Amino acid sequence: MARPFIITITTLLLVMWMASSVKSAPMSSKPKVILVSMDGFRHDYLSKVNNTPNFDMMLREGVTMPWIRNTFTTLTFPCHFTMVTGLYEESHGIVANNMYDSKTDRNRFRMSTTDDDWWTGHETIWTSAQKAGLKAGVYFWVGSASKIQGTRPERWFPYDGRVPFEDRVDTLVKWMSEDDFDLGLIYFNEPDHTGHVSGPEGHATLKEVERMDGILGRLLQKLNDTNLLDTVNIIVTSDHGMAATDSDTKLIDLRDYVNETLVANVIQQGSMASLIPQEGKAQELVDALKDVEHMTVMLKEDISERYHYKDHRRILPVLLIADEGWTISENGTYRRLNIPRFLGDHGYDNILSSMRPIFVARGPAFKQNAVVESIDTVDIYPLICHLLNIDPAPNNGSLERAATLLRVPPKFKENLGRVKKNTSEPSKH
Ligand SMILES: [Zn+2]
Prior knowledge:
- There is one protein chain.
- The chain is α/β, with parallel strands linked by helices and about 425 residues long.
- Helix content is about 25%, strand content about 15%.
- It has a 7-stranded mixed sheet, sandwiched between helices.
- Helix 6 runs parallel beside helix 8 and helix 7 runs antiparallel to helix 8.
- Zinc ion (ZN) binds near residues 40, 76, 192, 196 and 346.
- Zinc ion binds near residues 76 and 192.
């Protein structure tokens, strides 16, 4: 009776070994990276809801931090472009969602603008990957619909917020599995939109957080189905948080203090505002606004260095920053995105807790079940370059800082991922 028993045990061990090696053996040994952005996903949203099994799994099997430090101004376009370039906003030049540039033919930028010359040739992560011979696909990201350094991602789509999130996930996974892409980026316009409508504590917003957990679950499941889950390094993060506001009752109407004799144009308004003064009237404009409650006004040259938001011609002569929860308007109303009344907004000082985004990562390169010190969003670009084993372009990030996330510390080359700011074109005018 003993012999068959031994054979059975041996066979069982062999089967278990085979099963475990199949599970852990990646389809491909190439490193792969997926960067996910869920717009407006505040760092503490998960603590406000109960039903997020997929984020819970990511946290258990991956690495997180209390929040990731994002850049000023905490708006969608600037923050997203920082993530993929590793540059501060004054360096990459996407300094607001609405911009003015005296040097471009059509000098007004809005979120629908894709003219290539607004993107100033700074290298994005998909450009770096493709230069190194890798394949990159981007399912919506700020800048991906424009030619940057003469190229677009190998796969990309013009932005259409109506595309179901499930379709975005399914397409991305196809790129990564069937087409063997090395890098995939994917963007979801929630929970930002619901956060604006309902506020960061609103029931609808918190339900949306749970829905986004389901979308994350679909991504993880599809990667598992294609044997990629344990091969791909996935980073889930966001551009900014969300502060409670009320655009009906906490509104600063600039007409109460200034008029067109001082102000030539208001380019961006809301949580912050960018003003072009009349010729020679900048100081007078600042003086007229300096005692207005619930906001701070400053000349461009007086903007604090900590914002890294000064040295670019698209940063306009006068900057206003509203106190948390307040809204600046040039005409007594604040309407955008077809939202009649804002109960949540962002764009405020990036030092505010409410402006901080989530960060969680999982994959073979990342620590497991670990909480590490916060890094900066400028560090994401050199981090992904390291994960893909490609050389980064000059950037403001730090792989040394991001290394805290990694199981195996990188061997540092001289100056890798650590180039002093202002790699941008000459910016003073
Ligand atoms: Zn938003």
